[in-house]
Design goal:
Elements: H1 11-24, H2 27-37, E1 42-45, H3 47-53, E2 60-65, H4 69-76, E3 82-84, E4 92-97, E5 100-106, E6 111-112, E7 119-120, H5 127-132, E8 142-144, E9 149-151, H6 156-162, E10 164-165, H7 171-177, H8 180-192, E11 195-196, H9 198-206, H10 216-227, H11 232-242, H12 245-248, H13 251-255, H14 268-280, H15 289-297, H16 302-305, E12 307-308, E13 314-315, H17 319-333, H18 338-350, H19 364-374, H20 378-387, H21 394-418, H22 429-436, H23 442-458, H24 463-476
Parallel strand pairs: 2-5, 10-11
Antiparallel strand pairs: 1-2, 1-8, 3-4, 4-5, 6-7, 8-9, 12-13
Helix pairs in contact: 1-3, 8-10, 8-11, 14-15, 14-20, 15-18, 15-20, 17-18, 19-21
GO molecular function: CCA tRNA nucleotidyltransferase activity
Domain tRNA nucleotidyltransferase/poly(A) polymerase RNA and SrmB- binding: 193-254
Domain Poly A polymerase head: 42-165
């Protein structure tokens, strides 16, 4: 992070960014020409300009203009591949052209009631006033397309050079208008690795409670984007130090009070950030939200289970069970999907299972159960367990990694022999009903579960052996079976 003021980005960098944007998206020139012919100015604005200057332009393009919404519609209808008007009440017309998603929004000069997030929509007449109402200076730059003129009235170029996140207006004004911008600040810190300006941190801290005005769905979206950023720990630290986390993910600051059982970190919170980093290092196909949530939250059950032992020790018995329940509760409140809730809570529930492996004492039956309980989450569980090793004792860390290597080798061997990915009883439901002469019902399900447990304990059985075991079990249940 910069400790002193960096040189401003040169005019040539700005010009190159504009040229690159126009090269990758020639539709902008066509669109600008249509607006110019009608006597209007069209500006490429916000994120696309920022990202082009960072060398990472994309396909989604945002524009602003002095043309009013109905005028915009008349200019784009015959040109675009598709047009939608869902945001027209807020001055935004959406369109698709040659594979690009475009949004054109009339200059805005809104005022907010500062109770909800709902603005009183008013249209403006200048690009400078429009940029002033935007969230951060790095998003308050524009390119006037007909003249290829760069517009940067609030120092966004210098902020990019310094890697500093600041607001065009005062942070207090900006966040009072829209408290979601405080979460967006943490998200941009995570995505870009920028440092928030001191006045931004001060405003976030004093106004943290305002985030309760924001709907849960919007909060969840920002948290997910933050977690999937390149530097999520920076964003998380900002949420915790400003007090925002206490309102949106209170389990995080609660972990700062706990000392973890190995005493290798200041507290469980810091340990969890290290685990998150180590889990991310193992990702293979880009950010994995489920793995990252599990890594961050795997120890949230520790505060509720902490016990001080004789001799000065600390224990957290069954914190994985308590933690899994807490994860389900928190993620439900954040309106995550059922699939994400189920997967993250199951990873938290299973993350300690490996520590019963010892020096390889598990039977093949225990290995089968480990694989079966993890199911499609096995690859993520491998990553989480490895990431959870944060001891500073290199010898102990190497031993744990070697032991897990051995477990994975056993899993691979047994999987090759028995197709563990599809562990099923040796007799299916139809055959159970035929052999026991029973209709569909609870007894069939119980028999199926018994045979699956038997399969996990003993591996594949010969057909006759499986039938004999089924009959023996049925007799114990009081079910008449053929002699």
């Amino acid at each position: 992070m910069p400790g002193s003021k960096s040189p401003a980005l040169s005019d040539s960098v700005r010009e190159n960014a504009v040229v690159e944007l126009l090269r990758l998206a020639p539709v902008t020139e066509e669109l600008a020409a249509r607006f110019a012919e009608a006597g209007h100015r069209l500006y490429l604005v916000g994120g696309p300009v920022r990202d082009a200057m960072l060398g990472r332009p994309g396909n989604d393009l945002d524009f602003t203009t002095d043309a009013r919404p109905q005028q915009v519609l008349s200019l784009v209808r015959s040109w675009a591949d598709a047009v939608w008007e869902t945001g027209i009440a807020y001055g935004t017309v959406g369109l698709a052209k040659d594979g690009h998603q475009l949004e054109v929004t009339t200059f805005r000069a809104d005022s907010y009631d500062r109770v909800s997030r709902n603005p009183e929509v008013t249209f403006g007449d200048s690009i400078e006033a429009d940029l002033l109402r935007r969230d951060f200076t790095v998003n308050a730059m524009a390119v006037e397309l007909s003249e290829r003129r760069f517009v940067d009235p609030y120092g966004g170029t210098q902020a990019l050079a310094d890697k500093v996140l600041d607001t065009p207006a005062t942070p207090q004004e900006s966040f009072a208008d829209d408290p979601l911008r405080m979460l967006r600040a943490a998200r941009f810190v995570s995505q870009l690795g920028f440092t928030p300006a001191p006045r931004v941190v001060e405003a976030m801290t004093s106004m943290a409670g305002e985030i309760t005005r924001i709907t849960v769905e919007r909060v969840q979206t920002e948290l997910s984007k933050l977690l999937c950023g390149a530097y999520p720990n920076l964003g998380i630290e900002l949420l915790v130090t400003t007090g925002l986390a206490a309102h949106v993910l209170p389990e995080l600051p609660a972990m700062r009070l706990e000392i973890d059982e190995h005493h290798q970190h200041k507290d469980v919170y810091q340990h969890s950030l290290v685990v998150l980093d180590q889990a991310i290092a193992q990702e293979e196909d880009g950010p994995d939200l489920i793995l990252r949530l599990a890594a961050l939250l795997h120890d949230i059950g520790k505060p509720a289970t902490r016990r001080f032992e004789e001799g000065g020790g600390v224990s957290f018995h069954h914190h994985e069970v308590v933690g899994a329940k807490m994860v389900r509760k928190r993620l439900r409140e954040l309106k995550y999907s059922k699939e994400i809730i189920t997967d993250v809570s199951q990873l938290v529930f299973l993350h300690l299972r490996f520590h019963g492996y010892g020096k390889g004492e598990w039977t093949d039956s225990a290995v089968r159960r480990y694989v079966t309980d993890a199911g499609p989450l096995l690859s993520r569980l491998h990553k989480l367990v490895r990431a959870d090793c944060t001891t500073r004792n290199k010898r102990k860390a190497q031993l744990l990694q070697r032991t897990y290597d051995e477990l994975e080798e056993r899993i691979a061997r047994i999987a090759a022999e028995e197709d563990l990915a599809r562990v099923r009883p040796d007799l299916d439901g139809n055959e159970i009903m035929r052999l026991l002469n029973v209709p569909p019902g609870p007894i069939v399900g119980k028999a199926w579960t018994f045979l699956k447990d038997l399969r996990l304990d003993r591996g594949p059985l010969e057909h006759d052996e499986a039938v004999a075991e089924l009959f023996a079990w049925a007799r114990e249940q009081g079910v008449d079976v053929p002699e």
